[in-house]
Design brief:
The protein is of the alpha+beta class. The protein has four domains: 1-48 and 130-167; 51-120, no CATH class; 263-352, no CATH class; 395-522, PH-domain like, CATH 2.30.29. It has 14 helices and 20 strands. The protein has helices at 2-48, 133-166, 171-178, 187-195, 205-244, 254-257, 295-300, 319-332, 355-362, 364-380, 385-393, 404-411, 470-479, 515-522; strands at residues 51-63, 84-91, 102-104, 114-120, 123-129, 247-248, 263-267, 272-275, 278-283, 286-291, 305-313, 346-349, 396-397, 417-419, 424-426, 430-433, 439-442, 446-460, 481-494, 499-505. The protein has a seven-stranded mixed β-sheet. A five-stranded antiparallel β-sheet has the order 3-2-1-4-5, with no helix packed on it. A five-stranded mixed β-sheet has the order 13-17-16-15-14, covered by helices on one side. A hairpin with a 2-residue loop joins strand 8 and strand 9 (278-283). The radius of gyration is 35 Å and the shape is elongated. It starts with a helix and ends with a helix.
Length: 526
């Protein structure tokens, strides 16, 4: 009873370690991806912000700056629930960068210090103070370091799990396990047992072994492909959900609650023109400017009318727009009910949502990981292994279509010869290749042959075997090297102007073993 409980605990412990290894590996991938995003942001900021103006720290202090959290001028404010540590920087404008003063958190200089403000001449709203851009690089280094730690933890857990499985049993436990019990299959053996469905039509052992070998990789490919599709569809689905989900406009509280979501309003009066393309939408006792709507057709409809869009802010550089919007709301008396006049400069943008922009800006991770898996699958599948499995299910033929039983009968025919070097069956009616998927080529359809050389390389392990330690791991990394080899692909040219891959072998002259049989049946093909 005690031994049974102990085995159950050991089994649960192993499962927990596997789950922990998977979680740490996922965290390593996520932090690594975040590091790459930080590096990208660092490079873009450094390359874009090429113009410089000078600023000076006018004032140091500690306080709460209401309404500055999401503005360009307060981009570098320190975060905090109750207080924001800040400095006030006056900038000597150059006619392009006109934002002054700027507010930032602690660490950007002391009162009286002069600072360089680097900005993007094409978009002055993009800027950084002093050498602040290096903080992004430091964040990337930190994320990469954390990713490496998570990856090392995952490797240690896997190594520990393998060592525990290989550890010899002792005393009574060994005696218990020596007793006869029900045979337990490994996951690979279980899969091979299930994969026999692909070989049920074949009795030839060479064909069966080749099909089962290709099916192992095929299973991995299918599962990985489904995971990649799931991740991509998850990102797309969440993006579609965001586009079609309505949020109520937080009037008088934009600074703390505005996000990049879509907001909806139900106007209670006809839209009134404010200035230029701006129209005033009345929502109960509140107002909000709006652009990029078909106001002509809206005016013809009965109110209330529901409108959807994103909340934007009129930039400070568009002084004429801000001036006229402010004057309009002064006339209507709405400005008197606002906490700050800044609230009247937020507007509803009714531009049609761009699916791609919403996807890459709001839900990129599923898309990035899914596409990464697909790229890795494409690289792994470079050698046509998945295509091989597909050709086992439906063999490639050059002449008449044959069933699996007919192909099996040809392979088992008493006059059939198996050629080891090219790995081809020479049957009385056709050639049968199996290592690039089952390929059947009739003799009367062969017009010629071609041999193509392909280069391959692989990392080869040269380090000593034994328990893995830090020293051994470094030694292994220094002593491993790449092994290069070549394979030779035999391509049959048919009379129907097709080029079919019959086999691929490492034997340089393997096709020569096949030539006497082809010349006797198809004429001289040399």
């Amino acid at each position: 009873m005690v031994d049974g409980k102990r085995r159950k605990v050991d089994k649960n412990s192993s499962k927990a370690e596997i789950v922990l290894a998977v979680i740490t590996f996922i965290l390593a991938v996520i932090t690594c991806a975040a590091g790459f995003l930080e590096v990208r942001h660092y490079n873009e900021t450094l390359n874009n912000c090429t113009s410089v103006v000078m600023g000076s720290v006018e004032q140091e202090g500690t306080g709460i700056l209401y309404g500055m959290r999401n503005t360009v001028e307060g981009r570098y404010l320190s975060s905090g629930k109750s207080k924001k540590y800040w400095i006030k920087i006056t900038v000597r404008t150059d006619g392009v960068f006109k934002r002054t003063p700027l507010y930032a958190g602690a660490g950007y200089g002391n009162e009286g210090d002069r600072l360089e403000i680097h900005y993007n001449p094409a978009d002055p709203d993009e800027y950084y103070i002093g050498n602040n851009v290096k903080d992004t690089r430091s964040a990337a280094v930190f994320l990469f370091s954390v990713s490496g730690i998570f990856l090392a933890m995952a490797v240690i857990i896997v190594v520990h799990l393998n060592l525990k499985k290989k550890a010899p049993e002792s005393g009574k436990k060994a005696a218990k396990t020596a007793a006869p019990k029900k045979e337990k299959l490994t996951p690979r053996e279980k899969f091979l047992k299930r994969a026999e469905v692909y070989t049920r039509h074949y009795t030839n052992e060479r064909i069966r072994a080749q099909i089962l070998e290709d099916c192992v990789l095929y299973r991995f490919m299918v599962v990985s492909f489904l995971v990649a599709c799931f991740l991509i569809l998850l990102s797309v689905g969440r993006t579609i959900k965001d586009i079609n989900t309505d949020h109520k406009v937080p009037f008088n509280n934009y600074f703390w609650n505005i996000t990049d979501d879509f907001y909806s309003v139900e106007i209670t009066e006809k839209p009134q023109k404010v200035y230029g393309s701006y129209y005033d939408l009345t929502v109960g006792d509140d107002h909000i400017p709006a652009v990029n709507f078909d106001f002509g057709s809206i005016s013809e409809k009965d109110v209330p009318v529901k409108l959807r869009g994103k909340i934007r802010r009129v930039r400070d550089s568009r002084k004429e727009d801000r001036k006229n919007i402010k004057e309009y709301y002064q006339k209507t008396g709405y400005l008197e009910t606002l906490k700050e006049e800044e609230y009247c400069f937020y507007y509803l943008d009714g531009s049609f949502p761009n699916m791609w922009n919403e996807l890459k800006n709001n839900h990129p991770f599923g898309l990035v990981f899914g596409l990464t898996i697909l790229v890795v699958l494409a690289l792994v599948n470079y050698d046509d292994n998945t295509l091989n499995t597909a050709k086992h299910i439906r063999p490639a033929v050059s002449g008449r279509r044959r069933s699996a039983k007919q192909i099996d009968d040809l392979a088992n025919h008493p006059d059939t010869v198996w050629l080891e070097a090219p790995e081809v069956f020479v049957t009385p009616e056709a050639l049968i290749g199996i290592n690039k998927g089952i390929t059947v080529i009739d003799y009367d359809d062969i017009a010629g042959l071609e041999v193509r050389t392909r280069n391959h390389s692989r990392r080869t392990y040269r380090g000593p075997r034994g328990r893995v330690t830090a020293g051994r791991a470094i030694y292994h990394a220094l002593t491993d090297h790449y092994t290069e080899w070549q394979t030779y692909r035999l391509i049959i040219k048919t009379k129907r102007h097709r080029r079919m891959v019959l086999t691929e072998t490492r034997h340089k002259d393997g096709y020569k073993e096949l030539l006497p049989y082809l010349n006797s049946r198809c004429g001289d093909l040399t």
